[in-house]
Amino acid sequence: MLQNPAHAAQAPPATKPQAPVEKQQAPVDKNAALIGDFKARVEQYVELRKKADDTAPPLKETKHAGKIKDAQQALVERIGAARSDAKPGDILTPEIAAHFRRLLHPESKEPGTKAIMQEDKVGTVPFKINGPYPDTKPLATAPPNLLEALPPLPKDIDYRFVGRHLILRDSRANMIIDYMLNAIP
Amino acid sequence: MHPRRSLRAFAPLVLVIASLGVLAAQDLTLPNKPDSLKFAIIGDSGTGSKTQYSVADKLVASRAKFPYQFILMMGDNLYIGSDEKDFKKAFETPYKPLLDAGIKFYAALGNHDNPNERFYKGFNMNGERFYTFKPKPGVRIFALDSNYMDKSQLDWLDKELAASGSDWKICFFHHPLYSSGGAHGSDLQLRTLLEPMFLKYGVDAVFAGHEHFYERIKPQKGIYYFTSGGAAKLREGDVKSTAITAKKFDTGYHFMLIELVKDELHFQVISGEGKTVDSGVLPRFSDVEKKKLSTATQQ
């Protein structure tokens, strides 16, 4: 918790909020702004996907398994074309990534967290923007406390941890839309 | 042509012949009442291997004697990929006689599953990672995605459990909350999140997979837990007898048969060789008993 040393020595009257209170709130506001920025970037992606979805074959319930893969692939191609210039850090900007690290570090020390992350033995996943999450690799189970520490995501976008690294994944397209390295120590 | 595939072209005949051979060697311990709810459980089944086919044959055969209405899949339904051929090899072909007979499969997602399996009609997930269905008045079943237990899923579960007026509340998902497995063990984080909700709303029984063996757990705070992840994979010798173990089986493959008769859960676990490795009946705890047990010290 943030604490102004001057306040600790002599607290101001409760009825008269002083300027340092605003200073105390500043980091919180900055963090809120970062989260807001992240959400806006994700929302922008969701809008892009929606447009891709509208022109791709529908990814809906079917008894023909092949249609699921076809629809997924069509979505991948459309999203890939629509954001062909996307690069690492477009959504998880350096500032947002730094904030996420601050959120994740204490949680990663909670009992069982690293064990969950190491359990799946994911192996090598190519970190490529608009690239697929390999179909034959297990999807690393996301420790619930890490998910709770991060901002919630819209439906069908998820966080996945691959070793110490965090990927942002479109689960409908099974596609990596952004990633950050060394998300946890 | 795959020999199994050709055999499965004669599905009804296979079912009858198989039942003669397999069920002769096993006694049905379940009451098999006409009006009861009957279902089967398979976990970690999707390898497409000879072993999966062999266990599938036993599963098919058992239905001739115990006409279960549906099957719950504990996840890792497709290890080998999610192309059309993979669905065929690891699901549609081994279980063809059951699919042809109209038996529904209800799947949970495992860590080896592409979440888009939820769109596959054969898994009856309605396009969702987590869902609920009511197979019979008085029974509600909840399928969860334990790979990704985010707030949206927890909120959904809380709402659905609260709204469920069913007598029996059964949950199933991939990762076990209680396990004596050496390779994985209990998922403590998941337990911290889910168990309070299970206790609050009076969940009766929980089924999971992930561990490639069978384990029945001693009732924990009034809830029955089973791990059943050996329908195609086996981690031999992995389960230790711990204070929570009521019964374990890790020397062969298996599947489970379940029957709900009023306030009793009957179960029979059948090995890949067609032998019964565990069976019994568990009474459903009353709400008063559950409340008392939920505050009791964990065994």
Question: Could you explain the architecture of this structure?
Answer:
The complex is a heterodimer of chains A (185) and B (299). Chain A has helices at residues 5-9, 19-55, 65-82, 94-108, 113-119, 144-149; strands at residues 157-162, 165-170, 175-180. By secondary structure, chain A is mainly alpha-helical. The longest helix of chain A has 37 residues, at 19-55. Chain A is globular, with a radius of gyration of 20 Å. By secondary structure, chain B is an alpha/beta fold. Chain B has a single domain, classed as Metallo-dependent phosphatases (Purple Acid Phosphatase, chain A, domain 2, 4-Layer Sandwich). Helix content of chain B is 28%, strand content 26%. Chain B contains eight helices and 13 strands. Chain B has helices at residues 3-8, 11-24, 50-65, 84-92, 96-100, 151-163, 188-201, 287-294, and strands at residues 37-42, 70-73, 104-107, 131-136, 139-143, 168-173, 205-208, 214-220, 223-228, 245-249, 254-261, 264-271, 276-283. A seven-stranded mixed beta sheet of chain B has the order 4-5-6-7-9-8-10. Chain B is globular and about 50 Å long. The A-B interface holds A 59-66, 68-69, 72, 110-113, 116, 119-120, 135-136, 138-145, 147-148, 152-153, 155, 158, 171-172, 174 and B 80-84, 86-88, 92, 111-117, 119-122, 126-127, 146-152, 175, 184, 187-190, 192-193.
Major sheet strand order of chain B: 4-5-6-7-9-8-10
The run of helices and strands of chain A is: HHHHHHEEE
Structural class of chain B: alpha/beta
Number of strands of chain B: 13
Q: Rg of chain B from C-alpha positions?
A: 18 Å
Give the overall shape of chain B, derived from the CA principal axes.
Answer: globular
The amount of beta strand of chain B, in percent, is 25-35%
Share of residues in strands of chain A: 5-15%
Instruction: Tell me the span between the first and last alpha carbons of chain B.
Output: 52 Å
Spatial gap, N to C terminus of chain A:
22 Å
Poorly predicted spans of chain A: 1-22
Domain module count of chain A: 1
Which residues of chain B sit in consecutive blocks of at least 5 with pLDDT less than 50?
Answer: 1-21
Largest pleated sheet of chain A: 3 strands, antiparallel
Question: Overall pLDDT of chain A, averaged?
Answer: 84
- State the oligomer: heterodimer
Q: Would you count the extended β strands of chain A for me?
A: 3
Helical fraction of chain B: 25-40%
Task: Provide the CATH topology of chain B.
Answer: Purple Acid Phosphatase, chain A, domain 2
Number of structural domains of chain B:
1
Outline type of chain A: globular
